[in-house]
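Quiz preparation item.
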């Protein structure tokens, strides 16, 4: 089921699955870390950005506050190949839009080759491609 869209500067729109609903925009960046997702999500250096995880499964060891770098999630949005329910619920509780079921490796290659880009996310039952592009 497609109930989320990610619009990337240049006009590309990628369908996805909403894990935490909402609309947002920011600079599309990535991390290649395969552990430390709690640290990345609470790292103030990701403020105003849409964080893409290249590792395919985010959340395989739960969410533990002792790993937080700060008192809140800093990215404006999150993209992943697959998010566990623990992480998706945490992001929803923080009002951070998050989507999965998209090819993050492809996005990472684009960012690596072309640099960071503007990005919009529209996620939830009434999300449309136009909503993502508007962001």
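Solution:
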């Amino acid at each position: 089921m497609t109930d989320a869209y990610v619009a990337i500067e240049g006009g590309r729109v990628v369908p996805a699955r909403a894990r935490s609903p909402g609309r947002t925009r920011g600079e599309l960046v990535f991390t290649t870390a395969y552990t430390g997702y709690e640290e990345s999500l609470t790292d103030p250096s990701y403020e105003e950005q849409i964080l893409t995880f290249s590792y395919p499964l985010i959340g395989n060891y739960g969410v533990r506050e002792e790993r937080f770098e700060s008192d809140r999630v800093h990215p404006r949005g999150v993209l992943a190949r697959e998010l566990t329910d623990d992480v998706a619920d945490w992001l929803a509780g923080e009002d951070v839009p998050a989507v999965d079921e998209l090819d993050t490796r492809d996005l990472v290659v684009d960012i690596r080759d072309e640099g960071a880009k503007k990005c919009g996310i529209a996620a939830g039952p009434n999300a449309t491609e136009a909503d993502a592009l508007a962001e």
